[in-house]
Design brief:
By secondary structure, the chain is an all-alpha fold. The chain has one domain (3-264). It contains twelve helices and two strands, in the order H-E-E-H-H-H-H-H-H-H-H-H-H-H. The protein has a two-stranded antiparallel ribbon. Strand 1 (30-32) and strand 2 (38-40) form a beta hairpin.
């Protein structure tokens, strides 16, 4: 029955996404993609709507036994969705990377990227306080949640890339989780599959609001993994984020035949 959530989510959003796309187009909420084409931006707002719908539904049918797990999911997605939307509306390229945004904040200059970094850190601490079993687990969870959010943002530079990353990690995670986290993740897999054709063909951009939401979903899910997997995942995320400070992820992908094939597949 749990996979019914995935099916319902997929078909519901297959119907709704074209309506949102048309609404964005009519309102002129368009942005140039990496090719210079004007397409609807911030379609990732569907992930915000998704968490609101699924959380209300779960609380109605499942009750309060899983209230805290649903709460952290909802707060995490709403917080990072809001900061992502702020970045989509008001962001600029004056500073890039975590180091760049922190330098701006230290000089008392507020950027949307800085706001996103601070909000991401605060919400990661809040969620880790609730979900962690001990102090070591607490710090590992902070790293995973905050850096997973940034990781999806790093991938979201070409059509479909961030969604492929999300689906790869999320489908793999289904073998490691159960209960309410599995149901919540299945709903996000459903909406992501429904939106994938629009993103991968370059007809829409999900924007920072989309990559932020999907990133924190993966981060929260990963807090339920066993400690060995979490340590390995934390190391991977730290190394990837450090690499991105000085090197281009896109160039890395283009220089790898396997990664480039997977990146281009479906476009």
């Amino acid at each position: 029955m749990k996979y019914l959530i995935l099916i319902l989510s997929y078909f519901f959003w297959r119907f709704v996404i074209p309506l949102i796309k048309e609404f964005y187009t009519n309102c002129g909420f368009l942005r140039k993609n990496y090719k210079g084409d004007l397409i609807p931006n911030s379609m990732g707002i569907i992930f915000v709507f998704n968490i609101l719908l699924i959380s209300l539904g779960l609380l109605s049918f499942i009750g309060e036994n899983n209230f805290m797990n649903i709460l952290v999911f909802t707060i995490g997605v709403l917080t990072m969705g809001f900061t992502g939307l702020l970045d989509d509306f008001m962001g600029d390229d004056n500073s890039k990377g975590f180091k760049g945004h922190m330098n701006m904040l230290l000089n008392f200059k507020v950027t949307t990227g800085g706001i996103k970094a601070v909000a991401g850190g605060v919400v990661s601490i809040f969620i880790s306080l609730i979900l962690s079993s001990d102090i070591a687990d607490f710090f590992i969870n902070i790293i995973i949640i905050s850096l997973f959010t940034n990781f999806l943002n790093l991938l979201d530079l070409r059509p479909g890339r961030a969604l492929k990353g999300f689906l790869t990690f999320s489908i793999s995670s289904l073998f490691l989780i159960s209960g309410i986290f599995e149901i919540l993740l299945l709903s996000f897999i459903g909406v992501s599959l429904a939106y994938l054709p629009y993103d991968i063909k370059g007809r829409c951009m999900m924007g920072d609001i989309g990559s932020n939401c999907l990133g924190i979903v993966l981060g929260i899910i990963a807090t339920s993994f066993n400690i060995n997997i979490k340590i390995s995942l934390a190391i991977f995320l730290v190394l990837t984020n450090l690499y991105s400070e000085k090197h281009s992820i896109s160039t890395l992908i283009q220089n790898s035949k396997i990664l480039n094939f997977l990146d281009e597949f479906g476009r």
